[in-house]
Design goal:
This protein is mainly alpha-helical and 144 residues long. The chain folds into two domains: 32 residues, no CATH class; 109 residues. It is built from four helices and two strands; from the N terminus they run ββαααα. A two-stranded antiparallel sheet has the order 1-2. Strand 1 and strand 2 form a beta hairpin. Helix 2 packs antiparallel against helix 3. This is Ninjurin-1.
């Protein structure tokens, strides 16, 4: 019975049962579809961004629960707000990066700039979140 195999570029290929299993696993010279690769990469980055967004929202809730009497209340509110804003900007950039066609060479320069900006913003988000962790968001129930 013949089986159908899909390459990364979406082109299907029919194989017979006589072809050995190791040969089926190898890429037989099919080209990599850069749009497909970039979309998967951006989707993975977006999922991580959503996870961090949820963590920051939870931290913001905990800080607001502490109230202004908490020692680092205002610095943490500021840092968490900066982190959330940067994450929203990165998310919007990733949407544009996914929408544009990588195979269009006229877009390569714009896409490269957007990727570099997104990478720099992600680095900024990491640095801000290190400071958030250093100031220590505590659960409101653990007040002494």
């Amino acid at each position: 019975m013949a089986t159908e195999r899909m390459e990364m570029n979406g082109i299907g290929e029919r194989e017979s049962e006589e072809v050995s299993a190791p040969r089926r696993r190898r890429n037989l010279g099919g080209q990599l579809n850069m749009n497909h690769y970039a979309n998967k990469k951006s989707a993975a980055e977006s999922m991580l961004d959503v996870a961090l967004l949820m963590a920051n929202a939870s931290q913001l809730k905990a800080v607001l629960g502490q109230g202004p009497d908490f020692t680092f209340y205002y610095p943490l509110i500021t840092l968490i707000s900066i982190s959330l804003s940067l994450q929203i900007i990165v998310g919007i950039l990733l949407i544009f990066i996914v929408k544009w066609n990588l195979n269009d060479e006229s877009m390569h320069n714009k896409l490269n700039i957007m990727e570099n900006v997104a990478t720099a913003l992600v680095f900024g988000i990491v640095v801000v979140n290190i400071f958030i962790t250093a100031f220590g968001v505590q659960n409101p129930n653990s007040k002494s």
